[in-house]
Amino acid sequence: MFSLYGKIFSILRASFAFSGRTARKEFWFFFVFYALMYFAALGADVTYFRQAEPTGFLLILQGLFGGREPFVWIHFLLLTPAMASITVRRLHDRGHTGWWGLVYLIPLLGLVPLVAMLGRASQPGFNRFGANPFALANVAKNDAVSSEPAPAEAPSQMAPAE
Fold this sequence. Notes:
Blueprint: H1 4-13, H2 24-50, H3 57-64, H4 70-93, H5 111-119, H6 133-146
Helix pairs in contact: 2-4
């Protein structure tokens, strides 16, 4: 079963792991999470810093980030390393090096090939970056099913005759 919190925390724990491969479902799940957290941070900035004059802790936050969207900056600092690493691992899954992730820096045109590379299916089997994560998940699932103990036979309901 797909565990929401477990998946997020496993991705965040691997924030600085740029080796290996990541499945397409895991990448797009984290991409959506990253985007939702960005819009939540932007909404918090608009609510707390543009509507009224901040006081207390919010004033300290605004001072730390130069008066520029502190919640967006906090989002950027906390989640961008994880987004970069999962993008590199997804590119590895397609057989590309992580340097292809920098193609999005090309204005207007860079995003198209990057989304095309990230959206395609995994390379089957092994590539130079490791085993297919989907195949590994299936092996783990099959191992879990085969390692379950067989159900014990129920004891006889009849008492032995004497």
